[in-house]
Amino acid sequence: MLARLRSIGLVVLSLLVAGEQNLFAQLQERALEMGGTGQKHSKLFRPVDVSGAGIDFVHRWNPPAKHRDQLTNAFSGAGVAAGDYDQDGYPDLFICGQTNGGQLFRNLGNFKFANRSSLLKPPAPAGTWATGASWADVDNDGWLDLYVCGFDCPNRLYLNRPQGGGRVLVESASVLGVDFSGASIVGTFADYDRDGDLDLFVVTNRLPVPASLLSQPFSVSRGPNGEPVLPEAFRQYADVIALPGGKGFKKIDAGQYDHLYRNEGPGKPFREVTREAGMSGNHYGLSATWWDWNQDGWPDLYVANDFYGPDRLWTNNGPGADGVVTFTDMTRGSLPHTPWFSMGADIADVNNDGWMDFLATDMAGSTHYNEKMQMGNMSGPDSDAWFLNFPVPPQYMRNALYLNSGTKNFMEVAQLYGVSKTDWTWSVNFGDLDNDGWEDLFVTNGMSRDWLNSDLRARAPSKDGWDRYYDFWYAQKPLFQTNRVFRNQGGLKMQESGFEWGLAENSVSFGSVLTDLNGDGDLDVVVNNFGGPPSLFENTGTTGHRIVVKLVGTESNRFGVGSTVTVRPANSGQRLTRYLTSARGFMSCPEPSLHFGLGDQKEIESLTVAWPSGHRQSFENLSADRHYTITESAVGPKEERPSLGKEPLFVASHQMKGIRHRERPYDDFARQPLLPNKHSQLGPGIVFADVDGDNLEDFYLAQAAGIPGRIYFRRKKPGKTGNVFEARSLAPFRQHAECEDITPLFFDADSDGDPDLYVVSGGVEGSVGSPVFKDRLYLNDGKGNFSMAPKTALPDVSVSGGPAAAADFDKDGDLDVFVGGRVVPGRYPETPRSLLLRNDSGNGSVRFSDVAPEAKLDALGMVTAAVWADTNGDTWPELIVATEWGPVQVFQNVKGSLRRVTAKTGLDKLTGWWSSLAAGDLDRDGDIDLVAGNVGLNTKYKATDKKPELLYYGDFDGTGQPRILEAKFEGNVCLPHRGYSCSSNAMPGLRSKLPTFHSFAIKSLEAIYSQSRLEKARRYEANTLESGIFINDGSGRFSYVQLPHIAQAFPVISIAIQDFTNDDKLDLYLAGNSNSPQRETGNMDGGISLLLKGDGLGSFHAVWPNETGLVVPGNARGIALTDLNGDSKLDIVVSVNDGELRAFEAQ
Question: Which helix (H) or strand (E) holds 405?
Fold first, then answer.
């Protein structure tokens, strides 16, 4: 037990460092000033009268004539920085502005401030344009210095110096080599090379093209891939990007180069090392955030870039052989997609798992009206919609919340958390506002004008006349929007709470910080508003214990920036993690201290600091409601790379290296422009069997139309790449290359003792009834040589199929096959034909008969999955099928006769976009339960029983052409999903009825298309989008239970049931995602696959990917279990659409 010395005032504790080397450390503690100002308020936050508080700052917009165009850009707003420059215990504020160079306000306590801008020596010249600011101790003297960025003026660095018993801030940027003059957004500090002092990264945006370049001739060179490259003098003003489909290149505006400055030590100039560090890019930067996402101790950097510019996840490689620290951009390899117009960003451990997560924001409308007004033209020469799916990774106009999986791949879960659309969001700040132990989210909104209003954009004069163009926009009103707050409820859920908490201010807000302004240990809010005074909100909460931690580095930088602090409250099982970084949100920087809400926990079991130097310190048995100052102990060994836990259950295998599925591009939307999702990317399936009798399993990998499928035979020894499989050229597969393989099945079709191959043909790359949709049966000679079965073997049917499942449903000793009809090409959502192929082979001939019509199985809807399982214990297998826009259906097998019993099983009320099925005894009660994959909750679609997702199919414009209408509910009003541009392009008659985006956006579905036409159309609904399990009561009746919330992060396309964790209880392995949605929706690619551990009672919990080793990003399609390495353990192989196979060996 640690001895504790107590006193009323400051206490110095001499502690033994717990769990380390019994090192001596120093920790100071003081009680928090609980109670705040004592002013009661009905809501959690009380608005503070800023003028009465002594803050006489007003943001004014009055740019010089040459920069009036900046009204359109980020520089119309400004940031705010909090830091205790005079060390009196209260964070002071520096507020940036366009006309005054920014102003400094000393915090006097109790929400009183005094303007101390006179301490800035020398004062900024009149008209200096301050954009963003950061407090940081650049010279390691223990006092915070101030870095202020500017637009079209030099950046300033004020060193904190003593003078006459007080402090002054002396401008020294030129002397220290960081007075860059350009379009700077903010400077953010980190010790990226871990040498003990803070380095500086300046993120930049765009300056207007100098007049000297406008008339200067130039020649274009070619890059390594033949792309045009502009001369260096032009690179920070213009660039080119390739157009899709090899259609040439497009000129775009470019931004300035960002700058990384290395701190060479006190009194020495910083050194510009951007290129040396491997960083590049000439984009519209809007934020830069340091964090250690992979927990290797080296600070990484996320740079959010606007518009065409790609976001950058600069991952710190540490020092190379030459000692130089470099960075690698991991965006392509780690993120499934990014925001399109990336803006503010912040970090937090949102799910309290010990790994830092990340949120980057965009400006997606939070309401139907805002969304439809912003959407603009989705086609035509002025449309940029083509760009959405074109970059790698894709860029979508919505926020992205990257959940850290502990591997190199993130899950993107903004829609799952409900924070994907927060309007025109600038600053984003995580912090535990209600002190319950979970970090909440505050975002600022608004803009100088409503630049995305599609009707205003149509009315604006041509940009050829710039004066008239800007005169028009200056005459418009600012876009006032509501700042928003999302309370973190735990369990991967957030709930909007801005009105409830008193923070739903309607304003035009840019930079913001969360900081404890009055020393009571909870987070207050400061916001810099466009064209007016800032906003201050006092946190008046009286519930929830808390602590504040300040760090004092000795070997590390003085304020411990780059440290990770972990707190474990006593008796709670929680682990709270904070990373101390510099700039956060937009153009802003909070105080360099860490806040922890503790909920109802009064005691702390342990507090651990991982310093940038590599030292670690731990303290035990601490009290809540304290301010702790921890000084780094430089005694003892360093931990260069923390242990990341035990070995995973699986490790990636190289046995499939180089084996991949290749997709042929096809435009599904040319035939049906309002189609929700493509159907040309449904494969590939994969199936294993020993086809050549050598006791080694081989496999067939389905391929896209235009590419023949292949069987890969297992070799005795691996090749040079570690691959142990080789493909053999087989003529039967080549002759069916134009068929789109969907589901392959190995089974003994002719009862000769070896596996034959059945391949379902599907997709939409052909007309209805085309031969490319005929399924194929290949017969095996026992040695792995396959030949096409006689034409009479299968019914002469051409159907675009999907799933297939084999079973001896009539118990005649051979295997029969069910084939689900997936889609009618070009006529979605019409019902395709399904097949039940009874095996009537005999006397040396192979023949299957379709008995689906007599079993009433031929018109089941759009079938996505099928499985045979004996659900009622009578030994006859039932047929279970999953459908899109329908329920999971059950057909009872009554001695070889199938009867629909879906209603009796309790499944008929749950309609969804079911996508996969698996069967097993999940609760070990002796009967078969079901697992059903669905689209999940991490999409724009939301459905309940009373407010389902809807789809109508009919003639809505009187042309006789059936069209698709997707519909949703907002409140009690039914509204169209698709926007004005897409809808009117498909049905031009809408333009005469609804001539503007506004007229479309305010109308209900019924008002747009008429009730009579909707009633005549076919109506489909989905009221359940969650993946779940169906627990069997023993009689074949099921109860539905949703899978854990994290399992709803992606569409579940394939499911495997197996005891993967070796505890004799069945687990679930899920894989999926979808790159098929139309581009307004964007890819549903938030998942990287997931293992759910079963408890043997029918409940499951997620095992995190870094613990399982199972990571499958991309468009996963099929799961196969096989023994790859001969250790008698089942390994996992996952097929990926247009990607390489992923293989994992069990440990």
Answer: none
What residues pair up with 761 in beta bridges, in sequence order? 741
CB 857 within 8 A of CB 836: yes
Both structure tokens of 431: 């912090």
The total of other beta-carbon atoms located within 10 Å of residue 332's CB is 11
Which distant-in-sequence residues (6+ apart) come within 8 Å of 379 by Cβ? Answer: 385, 981, 982, 985
Residue 424, helix vs strand vs coil: coil
Q: Compute how many other C-beta atoms are within 10 angstroms of the C-beta atom of residue 345.
A: 28
Per DSSP, 236 falls in state T
Whether 1062 has a pLDDT exceeding 70, the answer reads yes
Peptide bond into 684 cis (omega under 30): yes
**Cβ-Cβ contacts under 8 Å for 1007 (sequence gap 6 or more):** none
**CB under 8 Å, gap of 24 or more: what pairs does 727-730 form?**
727/659, 728/784, 730/785, 730/786
Beta bridge partners of 878: 869
**Spatial separation of the C-alpha atoms in residues 345 and 365, rounded to whole Å:** 18
SS3 853: helix
- Given pLDDT bands bounded at 50, 70 and 90, which one contains residue 639? low
| Residue 70 per-residue DSSP state | G
Q: Which two tokens stand for residue 161?
A: 């110096």
Coil vs helix vs strand at 504: coil
Give the bridge partners for 94, in sequence order: 81, 104
Q: Is the pLDDT of residue 458 over 50?
A: yes
User: Looking only at Cα atoms, what is the longest distance across the chain?
Assistant: 109
Sheet with 45-48, strands from edge to edge, namely 45-48, 535-539, 524-529, 509-515
HEC string for 322-356: CCCEEEEECHHHHCCCEECCCCCEEEECCCCCCCC
Nearest CA-CA partner of 1083 in 1091, 1094, 1074: 1074
Residue 719, burial from CB neighbour count under 10 angstroms (0-12, 13-18, 19+): middle
Report the C-alpha gap between 1117 and 240 in whole angstroms: 35
In angstroms, the CA 634 to CA 539 distance is 37
Q: How far is CA 570 from the centre of its chain?
A: 32
- Dist CA 35 CA 298 (whole Å): 39
Angle at the Cα of 318 (from 316 to 320), degrees rounded to 5?
Answer: 125
**What does the DSSP 8-state code read for residue 982?**
H
Residues 417, 492: contact at Cβ < 8 Å? yes
Return the sign of the alpha-carbon dihedral for residues 763, 764, 765, 770: positive
| SS3 call for 85 | coil
Task: Give the Cβ contact number of residue 490 at 10 Å.
Answer: 14
Distance from chain centroid for Cα 78: 27
Residues 6 or more apart from 535 whose CB is under 8 A from it?
A: 47, 50, 505, 507, 509, 525, 526, 527, 529
Beta partners for residue 968, in sequence order = 975
Query: Which residue type sits at 875?
Result: T
CB 1058 within 8 A of CB 1072: no
272: nearest Cα among 258, 293, 252: 258
Q: Is the distance from CB of 936 to CB of 1050 less than 8 angstroms?
A: yes
Grade residue 16 by pLDDT with cuts at 50, 70 and 90.
very low
pLDDT in tens, 160-175: 999 999 999 999 999 9
Digit-coded pLDDT (tens) for 482-495: 999 999 999 999 99
pLDDT, tens digit, 9 for 90 and up, residues 433-455? 999 999 999 999 999 999 999 99
Tokens 């003529």: give the residue: 731
In percent, the amount of the chain with pLDDT more than 90 equals 87
- pTM beyond cutoff 0.85: yes
Q: Which residues of 503-529 are buried (b: 16+ CB within 10 A; e: fewer)?
A: bbbebbbbbbbbbbbbbbbbbbbbbbb
Whether 79 contacts 131, CB under 8 Å: yes
| Gap between the Cα atoms of 849 and 77, Å rounded | 71
